[in-house]
Amino acid sequence: MVEFTLPKNSKLTEGKTWPRTAHATHVTEFRIYRWNPEDGQNPRIDTYCVDRDDCGPMILDALIWIKNTVDPTLTFRRSCREGVCGSCAMNIDGVNTLACTRAIDETKAPVRIYPLPHQPVVKDLVPDLNNFYAQYASIEPWLHTTTPAPEKEWKQSHEDRA
User: Fold this and answer.
1) What strands, in cross-sheet order, belong to the sheet with 13-17?
2) Mean of the per-residue pLDDT values for the chain?
3) Cβ(100)–Cβ(60) under 8 Å?
4) Whether 103 contacts 93, CB under 8 Å
């Protein structure tokens, strides 16, 4: 028989349920993974009620709303909000996706948000991307040239572009 030994702080616990905004009528519940390596506590799932009438349509909008109006300690990455950079990658309802491109209406309530499962967690929803960036740099997925670098910028002709 196989016996697995999990680290001491690997068991999820029920976290805080934040109070609902008094005037909110259109509310969606979010259950969000929280973990702070500095406090020595187990990871927990906090529950937030998002006022959809005061929030944008995307999951990232809801996370920003939570951070700005309910819990300023919530930690996550974001950048372009266009689905290009990948900063807001997380596991939403069991699917690894970008929070900026996933609509709240595409998920069933309660919306469950966890960090990426294949990356170590720095804090809350922030994964450690050091290994990813090291692998990215090792394959050098950019153009290489043999000509000397110009003083200002590389000029590209219509023929070069074609």
Assistant:
1) 13-17, 44-51, 27-34, 111-114, 89-92, 95-98
2) 89
3) yes
4) no
